[in-house]
Amino acid sequence: MVEVVDLRKSFGSGPTAVHALRGVSFTVRRGELTALKGRSGSGKTTLLNLVGGLDRPSGGQIRIDGRDLAELGEDGLLELRRDRIGFVFQSFGLLPILTAAENVGVPMRLCRTPVAEREERVRELLALVGLADHAQQRPGELSGGQQQRVAIARALANRPELIIADEPTGQLDSDTGRSVMRLLRAVVRSEGVTALVATHDPTLMELADRVLDLRDGQIVSD
């Protein structure tokens, strides 16, 4: 599903350049949950941004389901992010004025999904993440764990093939984090998606199919 070859990313130039990624190569098989671990500053977020088409590499190659991201223009990357990749962020990224149901429905509105189909998918996803009874509550009325569950449901809205999650339990206590991680593992299985998750959480590492260890911009173990 994901193939990364000799990926490099630098910020700045000359002697002051910061080399965030230094020749990273790995693959993620379809239907696999891969955890990406590493200390702060190791390059995890940079790597996820590149794989998700949110940034361009300085060198190397990224293929998503056989498509070379370097060959896609901005419109192509936008379509990829909208239709084939779901994102889950540490800060949840929910719109505070919208209800849980409305937040989950946002990606489908952007794709002009028919109203009846959209509403049915929203109900299905909120039930999947255990929030069917919280559909009309706004983010400020939900706990951190509940907000992250809404974010996971939203990431699944357009039936993506790949989920990219950056420290999804970073703002949660350990018990809530474990609950969210188990949910993510269950969702990968039930929805048949592939997931690449940056995390410090040992619970996810135990639940993952594989763990990639990133240090100083390089994969040191797989």
Description:
With 222 residues, the chain is an alpha/beta fold. The protein is 36% helix and 27% strand. The chain has 7 helices and 10 strands. It has helices spanning 44-51, 74-83, 100-110, 115-128, 144-155, 174-191, 202-207; strands spanning 2-11, 18-28, 33-37, 59-64, 67-68, 85-89, 162-166, 194-198, 210-215, 218-221. The protein has a 6-stranded mixed sheet. Strands 2-1-4-5 form a 4-stranded antiparallel sheet, with helices on one face. The longest helix has 18 residues, at 174-191. The chain starts with a strand and ends with a strand.
Essential attributes:
alpha/beta; transmembrane transporter activity; ATP-binding; transport; ATP hydrolysis activity; single chain; six-stranded mixed sheet; 222 residues; nucleotide-binding
Uncertain segments are none
What is the N-to-C order of secondary-structure elements (H for helix, E for strand)?
EEEHEEHEHHHEHEHEE
Question: Shape from CA axes?
Answer: globular
Q: Specify the number of helices.
A: 7
Structural class: alpha/beta
As a whole number of angstroms, the C-alpha radius of gyration is 17 Å
Q: Distance N terminus to C terminus?
A: 17 Å
DSSP strand content? 25-35%
Widest sheet, order of strands: 6-7-8-3-9-10
Helical residue percent band: 25-40%
Record field, number of beta strands: 10
Query: Mind describing the biggest β-sheet?
Result: 6 strands, mixed
Instruction: Give the overall pLDDT as a whole number.
Output: 91
